[in-house]
Amino acid sequence: MADLLHIEASPRKTRSASLEAARAFIDAYRLSHPSASIDTLDLWRVPLLEFDGDALDAKYAGLSGTPLSPSQRTAWDHIHALAKPLHDASTLLFSVPLWNFSIPYKLKHFIDAVSQKDVLFSFDPQTGFGGLLAGKRAVVVYARGLDYGKHSHTPAQAFDFQRPYFEAWLRFVGIDDIASIIVEKTLLGPQVDATARDEACSAAAALGRQ
Hints:
- By secondary structure, this protein is an alpha/beta fold.
- The chain has helices spanning 17-32, 53-64, 70-88, 105-114, 162-172, 190-209; strands at 4-8, 38-42, 91-97, 121-124, 128-131, 137-143, 177-183.
- The chain has one domain (4-209): Rossmann fold (3-Layer(aba) Sandwich), CATH 3.40.50.360.
- The strands form two sheets. It has a five-stranded parallel β-sheet with strand order 2-1-3-6-7, sandwiched between helices. It has a two-stranded antiparallel sheet with strand order 4-5.
- Strand 6 (137-143), helix 5 and strand 7 form a beta-alpha-beta unit.
- The two termini are 21 Å apart.
- The model has no long low-confidence stretch (mean pLDDT 93).
């Protein structure tokens, strides 16, 4: 069980802008919370099951109230195990680069695997959906090569499906306390890149100290 869980969605370990800012948050958090436990879930190293076959059958068996077969139970246990670190931690830190206007496929794969009824959300015919991660805090570092902000002079904002999608998912699973850090324009030369990274790291460290 961790107080802080860092979910890494970037495979670029040495020059990743999202990881650089996330590590600034972790360093500040560790100084402010010396007794806190910190874990990392690297989505490029953890086995993510294919959501087909037994996993898909287990989903629909659960929805219909049908008992799971042994192979379906194994697949469903794997899904619960993937989701368990999210339940155990009080603060979730995500480092998320922008890929093709959205999120990396490994993060989408993880979301598709663990976003299941009675795993990350509940459903009641009378009251609807309920997120099972309520009460937690999420800190999300978004990295983008260009400027996708609302003050950009290009239509780039219309192509930003990264933050809107990801934060819609966080709210769906019950997390409303969300802090966002955005590092942009990392492709516009070394000076712009360095300035953007420094600003994001400073903002991340300030959050980590809280």
